[in-house]
Specification:
Blueprint (H helix, E strand, L loop, with lengths): L2 H6 L5 H5 L29 E10 L9 E7 L12 E5 L13 E4 L13 E7 L13 H7 L6 E8 L12 E7 L3 H13 L9 E7 L8 H5 L7 E6 L10 H7 L1 H8 L4 E7 L3 H15 L4 H10 L3 E5 L1
Parallel strand pairs: 7-8, 7-10, 8-9, 10-11
Antiparallel strand pairs: 1-2, 1-6, 2-5, 3-4, 3-6
Helix pairs in contact: 6-8, 8-9
């Protein structure tokens, strides 16, 4: 794991890794009320062409974290998606063996009705990769390709993918969203879905735990902080902010134990975790502590959350 990764995910000991559950930590089924997803409509053999209609940097220009918000339009071609799904991008060119590059997968950052409501478009959150996990210089083939795209460029797309990491579709469902870096993409999609129906009275509670090194390296920081506080409960874990102690998402989960417990006790609550794989252990441990503090059995609750499709992980 590189330095940047360690900055937003607390280092995990070998003992903690050994203690990880052998089963998948999250659910393998969607929430019961999730809308029906369409998957694999377009494949490597039959990709669809999308047009770039926007490419904006969403982190501070003075930071090393170069993250872009990229909007793709599909024109008249059908490309139905849901919050939590992903698409594949086929970068042009060939690899060292002369074979076409394989697709890279990116989570959607926009809701089902488009980045711009009513339009057949969607958005992605893409970080420019310039080094590997060992800190060695490397140019990510697809991330650099995407971050350098200009308006009216075209992109080959496959998908959509994903049939479990989906938001609930019934009224007053609560969401606990836990993410770092570009793991914010599906959380933005879900939050925007809720924001667009804020006047309907259908929304449940939204609670966000968002980790980054500094505010300047936190994608969508400005728009996020403009959201009404009675709409979303925002908790920022900043691990490299000057004059502040290092905070990780699991620290804030523990600090907000009472509120997290209240949401966990509600069968209408779903939990979504997206970001670096190293965060899984810390998040699960924090949820376990929160549960045990209330005198409850985390093993039982964890099993219920997984079985009912209410705890989802999308880590890489």
């Amino acid at each position: 794991m590189d330095e940047a990764a360690n900055a937003v995910v607390e280092p995990v000991s070998s003992a903690a890794v050994a203690a990880m559950p052998s089963v998948t930590p999250g659910a393998s089924v969607p929430p019961w009320s999730a809308a029906h997803p369409y998957v694999n409509l377009y494949t490597h053999k039959t990709p669809v062409t999308a047009t770039v209609v926007g490419n904006y940097r969403v982190t501070g220009a003075d930071t090393d974290s170069d993250i872009h918000h990229i909007v793709l339009d599909f024109g008249e071609l059908p490309f139905p998606v849901l919050e939590g799904q992903s698409i594949g991008i086929l970068p042009p060119g060939t690899d060292a063996q002369g074979r076409p590059h394989h697709a890279r997968q990116y989570s959607l950052a926009s809701p089902r009705d488009g980045e711009r409501a009513g339009y057949n478009n969607l958005s992605l959150t893409v970080k420019r990769v310039t080094e590997d996990h060992q800190g060695q210089s490397v140019n990510g083939v697809c991330s650099n390709y995407l971050c350098d795209l200009a308006r009216n460029d075209t992109v080959q797309v496959i998908g959509p993918f994903g049939h479990t990491f989906l938001m609930p579709n019934h009224p007053r469902a609560n969401l606990i969203m836990i993410c770092t870096g570009t793991g914010s993409a599906p959380m933005r999609a879900m939050t925007e879905r809720y924001r667009r129906r804020i006047e309907t009275g259908e929304n449940g509670r939204l609670m966000l735990f968002f980790g980054a090194r500094t505010e300047r390296e936190l994608p969508y920081f400005g728009p996020l902080m403009k959201l009404p506080r009675d709409f979303i409960d925002i908790n920022l874990a900043l691990s490299r902010e000057a004059d502040r102690p290092r905070r990780y998402v699991q620290d804030l989960i523990r600090e907000r134990a009472a509120d997290v417990r209240g949401l966990l006790a509600d069968r209408n609550t779903c939990i979504y975790v997206c970001g670096l794989k190293g965060m899984e252990v810390g998040v699960l441990d924090a949820l376990r502590e929160v549960t045990v503090q209330a005198g409850q059995d985390w093993t039982i609750l964890h099993d219920v959350l997984r079985r009912e499709g209410r705890l989802h992980f999308e880590t890489y």
